């Protein structure tokens, strides 16, 4: 079946402006334009739009979605299975957050008590879940299940103070990295960025698991894997990931 842009927008619950933008950035182009100048979408485009909306529900950027959907050997059945798994994880995350909110309400009513660690459990679990969803395949393939499971356990066992320190270190790193276009390696600022990243990494993976080679390998994966590149580039500007890799390779 074929659809005009208006009919497809109504079918999918999006705006025609959204579809025009997807066409503009070559994320979803119509099958053809008829003699009257109307965009016409076929079954292939309908299915692709469904995939795009699945990915948007998982909070992926349009750039990340385009990278995934433009793979020449894309397997839609496998992709659907991945969507389902990710949505189940998201459901579990939301359930945990709701549970924490309910407990906090009960605390405010004087019905129960919560430790400071319990107050942040859902947020730490959210971070673990997001990391697994976005980067799990890459990091488990590179470092193995034992390393990543240990890292997740270390994060979940963090105190509220340690967790806040970890978040603060990353934010300071991103703030410094935002000026990467004028950054010189070596320099005092570059060294500070390296030390902040090392602190973040040793908290996430524990000091016992840290090594210079591991640190370098992680930085190499940042620039090799689009999802990692998108993370730092989206937060500190395009090209930030490559500069971070350069810094880590030099100082490690």
UniProtKB/TrEMBL annotation:
SUPFAM superfamilies: Antibiotic binding domain of TipA-like multidrug resistance regulators, Putative DNA-binding domain. GO terms for molecular function: DNA binding; DNA-binding transcription factor activity. Keywords: Activator, DNA-binding, Transcription, Transcription regulation. Residues 1-71 form the HTH merR-type domain. Pfam families: MerR_1 (PF13411), TipAS (PF07739). InterPro entries: DNA-bd_dom_put_sf, MerR-type_HTH_dom, MerR_fam, TipA-like_antibiotic-bd, TipAS_dom. PANTHER family: HTH-TYPE TRANSCRIPTIONAL ACTIVATOR MTA (PTHR30204:SF90), REDOX-CYCLING DRUG-SENSING TRANSCRIPTIONAL ACTIVATOR SOXR (PTHR30204). This is MerR family transcriptional regulator.
């Amino acid at each position: 079946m074929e659809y005009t842009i208006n009919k497809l927008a109504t079918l999918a619950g999006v705006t025609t402006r959204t579809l025009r933008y997807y066409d503009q950035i070559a994320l979803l182009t119509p099958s053809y334009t008829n003699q009257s100048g109307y965009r016409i979408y076929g079954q292939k485009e309908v299915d692709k739009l469904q995939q795009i909306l699945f990915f948007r529900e998982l909070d992926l950027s349009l750039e990340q979605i385009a990278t995934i959907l433009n793979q020449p050997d894309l397997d839609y059945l496998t992709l659907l299975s991945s969507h389902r798994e990710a949505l189940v994880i998201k459901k579990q995350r939301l359930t945990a957050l709701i549970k924490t909110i309910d407990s906090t309400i009960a605390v405010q009513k004087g019905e129960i008590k919560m430790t400071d660690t319990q107050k942040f459990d859902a947020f730490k679990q959210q971070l673990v879940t997001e990391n697994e969803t976005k980067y799990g395949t890459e990091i488990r393939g590179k470092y193995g299940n034992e390393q990543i499971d240990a890292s997740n356990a270390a994060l979940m066992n963090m105190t509220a103070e340690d967790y806040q320190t970890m978040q603060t270190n990353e934010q300071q790193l991103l703030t410094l990295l935002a000026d990467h276009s004028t950054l010189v390696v070596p320099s005092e600022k570059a060294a500070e960025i390296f030390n902040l990243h090392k602190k973040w990494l040793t908290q996430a993976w524990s000091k016992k698991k840290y090594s210079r080679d591991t640190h370098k390998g992680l930085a190499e994966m940042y620039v090799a894997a689009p999802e990692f590149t998108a993370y730092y580039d989206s937060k500190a500007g395009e090209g930030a990931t490559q500069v971070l890799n350069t810094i880590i390779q030099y100082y490690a």
